[in-house]
Amino acid sequence: MAAGATVRDMLFLYSNARAAYERFIEIGSKPGLARNAVALLLWLDQGRDHVMRHLPGLTRDAVIHLGHEAKAVLDRLHQDNLLLPPTPLMSALCQDGGGIDPGAFAFNQGLIVRGVAEILDGVGTLIFDDRLYRLYHRHQTGLLGRHAELEEPYVGRLPVAVPEDCRSMFITFSRGQSVERDEIFDYFRR
């Protein structure tokens, strides 16, 4: 989101994600499972809101099934041998965004796990905060005035320092001009 976004702006932006979370809770899901499922679905949406806009209107059984699919995917993402379970409902909901490619899950396993964790630790701290949402709804119309906590600037999760030996870089070279290995090393040793 653009610089200068307030907590109120972020709560509004992610109101469909909050509605999805409330729908999971409404059917009896544990809060941890509901948070994880919504975070995975948010990651799959990648800001397009294809899944989130459908979830509040799903039947109770469909939401339960979607929760089981999300839990199964998240459980498998934490294993070394990634064999994804079938996800027919999740795939159907993601059709607007191109569907789910099981091979992409296996290839991007680390990226998905980090992405879901970043959602939980970042904007998820707002989405899943019941007290903040009650405050937001009380002051939504503006008739009660502006609440200072909602008008604070949103500061996402601060970047984590990555040790130097864990960093990587992708470099491309033109086919027309070959570069010797020593030239590459010399360039980065300067």
Task: Outline the fold blueprint.
Layout: H1 7-13, H2 15-26, H3 31-45, H4 60-77, H5 88-93, H6 102-107, H7 109-121, H8 124-127, H9 130-138, H10 148-151, H11 181-189
Helix pairs in contact: 2-3, 3-4, 3-7
What is the H-and-E element order?
HHHHHHHHHHH
Question: Helical content, roughly?
Answer: 40-55%
Low-pLDDT windows of residues: none
Q: Total helix count? A: 11
Number of domains: 1
How many strand segments?
0
Q: What structural class is derived from the secondary structure elements? A: mainly alpha
Mean pLDDT: 78
Rg is 21 Å
Strand coverage percent: under 5%
- Silhouette: flat
Largest sheet: none
Our measurement of the CA-to-CA distance between the termini, rounded to an integer number of angstroms, reads: 37 Å
Please sum up the structure shown.
With 190 residues, the chain is mostly helical.
For the structure shown, list the relevant keywords.
flat, mainly alpha, about 55% helix
Characterization of this structure:
Helix 2 (15-26) packs antiparallel against helix 3 and helix 3 crosses helix 7. This protein is 54% helix and 0% strand. It starts with 6 loop residues before the first helix and ends with a helix. The protein has helices at residues 7-13, 15-26, 31-45, 60-77, 88-93, 102-107, 109-121, 124-127, 130-138, 148-151, 181-189. The radius of gyration is 21 Å and the shape is flat. The protein is an all-alpha fold and 190 residues long. The chain has eleven helices and no strands. The protein has one domain.
